[in-house]
Amino acid sequence: LVLSLAWLGPALGAEEEDGEVVAEEEEEDEDDFLSDELEEEDDVLVLHEHNFAHALSEHRLLLVEFYAPWCGHCQRLAPAFAQAAAMLKNESDLARLGKVDATAQVALANEFGVTSYPTLKLFRDGNRTHPLAYSGRMDAEGIVLWMRRRAGPSATLLQDTNTAAAFISSQDLVVVGFFKDLGSEAAQAFYEVAGELVDMPFGVAEVAELFEVYGLSADTVCLFKKFDEGRTDFPVDPAWGLDVSELTRLLRVHSLELVMEFTNETSNQIFGAKIPHHMLLFLNKSASAQLALRDGFRAAAGTFRGKVLFVVVDVAGYGADVLPFFGLTPADAPTLRLVKMENNRKYQMDQDTFSDTAISAFVQAVLDGKVKPHLLSAEPPEDWDTRPVKVLVGKTFEQVAFDETKNVFVKFYAPWCSHCQEMAAAWEELGERYKDHENIVIAELDATANELENITIIGFPTMHYFPAGPGRKMVEYKSTRDVETFSKFLENGGMLPEEPPVVSEVAPPQGQGPPPT
Predict the structure, then answer these.
(1) In what order do the strands lie in the sheet with 202-205?
(2) Are β-strands 119-124 and 61-67 bridged in parallel, bridged antiparallel, or unpaired?
(3) Which residues contact 256 (CB under 8 A, 6 or more apart)?
(4) Where is this region: Disordered (predicted)?
């Protein structure tokens, strides 16, 4: 669930700060007995410096995972990678999967610029100088689809009306490129898009008869779908041709239903479309009166297509798990929220009015920057300021963090974050050490239950130091997480000798005027 919910960004779905595993060179004794023979483990080729060239010469397409044995992300990928390897091996020997222990094969890791684990790169036709970065899903089906598109034609050639009609009706959604010259730059750009969007079937047509049957006179990409308007055309600009990134974006946007329902099956589509705002209608589908609210919601959606994705969330079904992120319970339905995906800022109408006119006006006001975000805040514990580590919430953060007489060191954490749990004892010890200090305050804030207007937390744990004095300064702590290093940082005024601090200025909440000078 966490992996699929981009709405949960810093609240539930953000990676822990150490989530990206950076490659570290480990000294290993060179094994003089490795040969260039190709060995397999669970249908995955085991590659090293001595047999890498042999593998490239044997297989036209070779997708290689560079991994570290201790990397949790790699361990979670391993079963899906092996399953995909078996499926591809059974289909053909042209496309295979391999793996390299990058901690042992440092030369290979350096040659291919591996800086994090796992890193997947595709090698084509024995060329080791320009591998292609993997851009598909990290599951067996996604890996296989991605490789199939690169093993064969990325689009099916449609040569007559019967094959075209059969192709278009074969699935709920298909893409067909009509080009008068399949060797043109526009057609080649279309093939490139087809290679990336592996979840959509792509066809291509050149014969004049098909242009006439589908009412076309010039090169056009057509999206055929068995929902909403049924067909969307994207004409090729005669002067500028076909832009790969723009066509990719348009197809992703228009492949979605105008109003999506949030389910396990649709979550990848919803977040994969990368639409910058999501407008959410929370309702209980078992209440017939609430179901009728979808009509006004849908009527408002068309105006904002591509800018705002409209999504229905069933509070009594799959959507129940996201309610805490919005500070909602099932009893709050029906209600509306708009989320800005860039920073997970949430916006709430002054009152829930479900007409298409009211919804459209609210969405436009948010896009125009005329609505303040709705910030969550827990209630402060009664003893929040008597503990060695002060417990901050959204509504008390300003008065504590920007107290000009105090130097405040704050840990932003998530209750489920393992890294946060590991450093909890050290943070408590730090609080004990400075509990009687006249101008140093140690504090913490649960960033999944509290939001701040001008500070966005994107990883856990995050530590920020707010020095005393005017100016609303904030220093991000990015060093070792132990008591002694924390203390050295505090005693040195918010910096470590070997690390210049990253200092930023935090704007005051709206309505409070500029920071004092």
Answers:
(1) 156-158, 202-205, 173-178, 220-225, 231-235
(2) antiparallel
(3) 269, 270, 273, 309
(4) 492-517
Angle between helices 140-151 and 72-91 (to 10 degrees): 50
> How many residues does the structure list for the chain?
517
Q: Are 202 and 178 in contact (CB under 8 A)?
A: no
Transcribe 145-179 into DSSP letters.
Answer: HHHHHHHS-SSEEE-SHHHHHHHHHSSSEEEEEE-
- What distance in Å separates the CA atoms of residue 2 and residue 22, rounded to the nearest whole number? 22
Is residue 108 predicted with pLDDT exceeding 90? yes
- Please name the residues in contact with 493: beta carbons below 8 A apart, sequence gap of 6 or more: 407, 467
CA distance 58 to 40: 14
Superfamily of domain 390-492: Glutaredoxin (3.40.30.10)
The reply to whether 417 belongs to the active site is: yes
- 259-368 folds as Glutaredoxin (3.40.30)
Which CATH number applies to 156-255? 3.40.30.10
| Catalytic residue from among 6, 21, 46, 71 | 71
Which SS3 state, helix, strand or coil, does residue 282 take? strand
**Rg of the chain in Å (alpha carbons):** 27
pLDDT at 11 over 80: no
* Selected catalytic residue, list 74, 158, 308, 445: 74
Cα dihedral angle (316, 318, 324, 328), rounded to 10 degrees? Answer: -40
* Cβ partners under 8 Å of residue 49, min gap 6: 34, 105, 107, 108
**Structure confidence by residue, pLDDT tens digits, 340-368:** 998 888 999 877 789 999 999 999 999 99
Q: Give dist(CA 410, CA 452) in Å, integer.
A: 13
User: 420, 455, 475, 495: which one is catalytic?
Assistant: 420
CATH number assigned to the domain covering 40-149: 3.40.30.10
CB 150 within 8 A of CB 60: no
Mean pLDDT over each residue of the chain, to the nearest integer: 88
Given 109, 315, 417, 440, which residue is catalytic? Answer: 417
Residue 31 has pLDDT above 70, yes or no: no
- Whether 222 sits among the annotated catalytic residues: the reply is no
Cβ atoms < 10 Å from Cβ of 181: 10
Q: Within the chain, which residue ranges are assigned CATH 3.40.30.10?
A: 40-149, 156-255, 259-368, 390-492
Residue 33 pLDDT class (50, 70, 90 cuts): low
pLDDT tens digits along 370-387: 999 988 889 999 989 899
Give the Cα separation of 338 and 324 in Å (integer). Answer: 15
